[in-house]
Design a protein that fits this description.
Helices cover 38% and strands 17% of the residues. It is an alpha/beta fold. The longest helix has 19 residues.
Amino acid sequence: GVPLARMPVRMMLANDELRTVLVSIHVSLRDAIAAVTQDNVLQTLQITHAALQRSLGRVPRMAVAGLNPHAGEGGLFGREELEVIAPAIAAARAQGLDVHGPFAPDTVFMRARSTPQRAGEFDVVIAMYHDQGLIPVKYLGVDKGVNVTLGLPLVRTSPDHGTAFDIAGQGVADAASLIEAVRMARQLSV
């Protein structure tokens, strides 16, 4: 009974090694760039903080990827990091959130990745648009990825690859991502 505008949500793609949350989702790259506003970045940080604090049982360590190569290189490759993203991070920090960045998008995911040999430096990376955030997680294995909707009053997970209608009824589908989605839903509902 709550209008969607009053219940903002964000997409998180996660596996055992990496979590990423998106400022914008399924829109054109041009629209995704336009969606990088101080309000949208701050709201993404707030939604992510609330959801992960519940599931981790502690304040999450959040990294923010820049929009431009090298996070804008001090304004040389764009001003979004200086004029939009950094002020949103400052506002989030003023609210007590543990958030850092903006970092170069081509390296921040490696810093956040957890492996059996070392814990990631961050619990989650906030990415500015769909492919920036989903490529690193999917590269680690589509069969392990889970799509989680953050900001809902209930737990919602799904396989990261979607419905796979192209192979439905052929007996070739791999249920691994579905199993991971159910496993993660169970973890999040505790």
